[in-house]
Design goal:
Layout: H1 9-20, H2 28-37, H3 39-44, H4 57-68, E1 90-91, E2 97-98, H5 107-111, E3 115-122, H6 131-140, H7 168-181, H8 205-223, H9 225-231, E4 234-236, E5 258-263, E6 294-295, H10 296-308, H11 312-318
Parallel strand pairs: 3-6
Antiparallel strand pairs: 1-2, 3-5, 4-5
Length: about 325
């Protein structure tokens, strides 16, 4: 529990004295019940947001996540880069690595400086960890605080009909041909990333999905053609990433900070961009997630400013109150 949220600081002592210490060495059922009903946990997991027709999914799901969280990633970790180990990470400089299933799809783009990665990116002001709430936040491009205008948004053409990564390569190639011949802008929702159970590491469920995504993106770059690829900018984002620690089901749960991919024949790729911190216990957000250091709206604002020559007023019409992040992507 993170005591800086809302007014939790005044409740933490009572929570520890009444819900944790007396029951920590007893029956799990009793500990869970005490935690479930304590005002501190009800506030921490936003139970007050529950309403008829608008269920807050965090409360029921995350009350279990908090009690089944593993230590580190004992079954999910990928080995550091090692030329003798085909299942080890692919080196992207001294401190970062790429999943090994992306060796033949994304790594060649990295070598040609046609892909960059922005770690610790996401929705800095949306802490719901709800798929639907955070998807709304991203598609609207509006602050998560205050009222929202659902009639406006920089991604209002997007929809919830997420396709599966399986077979996505064929769709991506088709999109590439359409954009080469007819269209200049497109959005695609790709599902299948909610890896609460049996996520896998170098192989397994997530590895298969990443492999399919990598082949689809590489296929898109081929189908749009050399001229189209030079003018294209492809951004791969997620509403949130996953928890730093593995859970009790050999998976990970809804997190916060993510890694964005930016691709194109004309970008300044081959780099890891944006503010970064060492990933350790001290840097975790709320002691569980990667922090958000580059807000998604700031990143897109900087991209749009460079790509379309927008002045300050133009940027503010899209992302009100946002200062563009100049990451040098284009």
């Amino acid at each position: 529990m993170h005591q800086s949220k809302a007014n939790l600081r005044i409740l933490v002592g009572d929570y520890e004295d009444r819900a944790i210490r007396p029951l920590a060495l007893g029956k799990f059922r009793d500990l869970l019940a005490a935690t479930l009903h304590h005002p501190a946990m009800l506030r921490y997991l936003d139970n007050s947001d529950n309403a008829v027709g608008h269920i807050n999914e965090n409360f029921a799901r995350e009350i279990m996540e908090l009690h089944t969280m593993g230590v580190g990633r004992p079954t999910l970790g990928i080995a550091r880069p090692d030329v003798g180990n085909p299942n080890s990470a692919l080196p992207l400089g001294a401190e970062w690595g790429l999943h090994p299933v992306l060796r033949d799809s994304i790594l060649p783009l990295w070598g040609r400086r046609e892909v960059a990665f922005v770690p610790f990116a996401g929705t800095s002001d949306d802490l719901t960890r709800s798929h639907f709430e955070t998807q709304d936040t991203i598609e609207l491009g509006q602050s998560a605080s205050g009222s929202r205008d659902y009639r406006s948004g920089f991604m209002t053409a997007a929809n919830r009909g997420a396709v599966s990564p399986r077979g996505f390569e064929l769709s991506a190639r088709r999109i590439g041909r359409l954009m080469r011949e007819q269209f200049n802008l497109g959005f695609v929702d790709v599902g299948g990333w909610d890896t609460h159970v049996n996520q896998g590491a170098a192989t397994g469920y997530l590895a298969d999905r990443l492999g399919e995504l990598g082949r689809a993106l590489a296929g898109f770059s081929e189908e749009i053609g050399p001229a189209g690829w030079r003018d294209a900018v492809v951004v791969v984002i997620s509403e949130f990433a996953r928890t730093f620690r593995e859970n009790g089901d050999r998976g990970t749960d809804h997190g916060h900070g993510s890694v964005y991919w930016v691709m194109g024949g004309g970008i300044n790729g081959g780099r890891i961009l944006g503010e970064q911190v060492k990933v350790d216990q001290a840097s975790l957000f709320q002691n569980r997630d990667y922090p958000v250091l580059t807000d998604y709206r700031a990143m897109f604002a900087g991209l749009f400013q460079r790509m379309y020559g927008l002045d300050a007023a133009g940027v503010q019409r899209i992302f009100a109150g946002v200062h563009p992040a100049q990451l040098g992507l284009v």
